[in-house]
Amino acid sequence: MATTNGLPVLKIAFEKAAAEVANRSKKGNVAIFVRDAASQGVHQLMSTAMIPSGLGSDNKAHVMTAFEGSDRGVPSLVYLVVIATGTEDTTALEAGLKSIEAFSIDYLAGPPDVTDDEMEVLAEWVKAQRAIYRPVKLVKPWKTAGSDDMGVIELDETGMMNAAGGVTAAEYCARMAGILAGIPMGMSATYAALPELTAVTDRTTEEQTTAINNGKLILIHDGLQAKIARAVNSLITIPENGKEDWSRIKIVEGMDLISYYLRTTIENEYLGRYPNTYDNKQILVTAISDYFRYLERAGVLSAGESYAEVDYERQLLWLTSQGVDTSGMTRKEVLEYQTGSWVFIRCGGRLVDAMEDFEVLFNNL
């Protein structure tokens, strides 16, 4: 007879009433793909000096764009995945994705000549990774239908130009991924400057607003320089327990970092290491609370609003499901009751957003 043990379960739920949030406490990591006959495999690059010498000149130039970041910061690390040439199928791309599953990646971009089939594979891989609380987000060109997913960022640009000529959205995704990974704590990528671009897609103000509301990442040019119009992902259908600001890249980055912190801390420091007692649950609660206090002091979480505690309601439901008579039990007795291998924690806080929308009134006295 089969058991119901399975693998240890780590459930981290983001709900409207108690969102678990944090913001970037470090600059992020990028993974980008190129096709080349030489230097195939995964390369961890700390700087442009580490770019494989065997790569073709176009690929070298492409990889360098991922390092540029913006005046707000640069990425910490670039994982370069060199796959075989040829776009007949997605085999090479799939093998490349498999080779980076063990790495911590914040933003991912496909090859500069990414195909429609490859974009589907990339999106599905990212969704699968995010389902197990790995914080990777895909930057891809927008197609005829948006992904409607907060883990997928879709660049909709057809009019980009630099000093050398036209730039496609697929070619620019590595650059954009590097920018997003380099944004530090407390900032967003909205209005991040793109000084190398001399032109972007021509849109009216109304068209810009419509594009952004439809989950498209677009660029604007103010006559002096190009910049990111509004740092949004492709999410336009808000989940039942979600919030509208889940469409903002900064907010999702915060949610990802807190889930990553909780998952890695629990897996590395607690899972399987301690008896499941109330005292040991409180050690975990304290660790989470301390991290939230740090984020409050850094101006990432709203001061005095974050919390972590043993989840009384979930523990009560679990005890009832196990046939335990809880009718005469006090709250303290429920919290301290032995719960097998299960640990139920609830935590939350309020993310402090970046300043992006302004209304200034001048009185001519």
Task: Describe the structure in your own words.
The chain is of the alpha/beta class and 365 residues long. The protein folds into two domains: 23-228, Rossmann fold (3-Layer(aba) Sandwich), CATH 3.40.50; 274-348, no CATH class. It is built from nine helices and 14 strands. Strands 2-3-1-4-5-6 form a six-stranded mixed sheet, sandwiched between helices. A three-stranded antiparallel sheet has the order 8-7-10. It has a three-stranded antiparallel sheet with strand order 9-12-11, with no helix packed on it. Strand 11 (219-221) and strand 12 (226-228) form a beta hairpin. It is globular. 37% of the residues are buried. Mean pLDDT is 89; it is low at 9-24.
In whole angstroms, the N-to-C terminal distance is 84 Å
Uncertain regions: pLDDT < 50 for 5+ in a row?
9-24
Let me know the average pLDDT. Answer: 89
Write down the domain tally. Answer: 2
Q: Report Rg.
A: 23 Å
Tally of helical segments? 9
Beta-strand share of residues: 15-25%
According to CATH, what is the topology of the largest domain? Rossmann fold
Throw out a few tags for this protein.
365 residues; alpha/beta; Rossmann fold; 2 domains; three-stranded antiparallel β-sheet; 9 helices
